[in-house]
Amino acid sequence: PTPLLFIHAAWHGAWCSDEHFLPYFAQHGYASYALSLRGHGNSPGQERLRWTRIREYVDDVAYVVAQLPAPPVLIGHSMGGFVTQKYLEKYAAAGAILLASIPPTGVLKTTLNIMRHHPIPFLKGRFLDFEPQLRLACFVIKAVTGKAIFRQDRADVTIVVNGCRTGSPDH
Length: 171
Prior knowledge:
By secondary structure, this protein is of the alpha/beta class. 42% of the residues lie in helices and 16% in strands. A 6-stranded mixed β-sheet has the order 4-3-1-2-5-6, sandwiched between helices. α3 (54-67) packs across α4 (79-90) and α6 runs antiparallel to α7 (132-145). The protein starts with a strand and ends with a strand.
């Protein structure tokens, strides 16, 4: 079958796909891959995450796709869906699945809407003692689920082929 490449949301990493999707699809015969975009998970670049551009994430995806045995189906969640859309503007893929994707126009309007309707929680979320890139995510997750959920203990890339982990490429 066509390989699957999972592209995570902001403030996530390959661990999210490893935890929730890779084993399932591997059990069903798919070579399943996940990467941590630069600055996420254990990938380098955390010190410049604030200045990382979407085109750099597209480059990360292109690098991983070039290592795969065949063009994959890209499965992008939230920001990963946005990266997937931008990737497809320049490159071909076997297919694409967008999960709660950021639209091509971005999320500025949504962020301003949250700020306008929930100013106190928004400001508290922006100025908690978390790493800067986690502040807004913490607020949004708390607003939606009532609790913050973050894990940073997974490898940058997890590869599962037919249920067997095969290692982590250098990216």
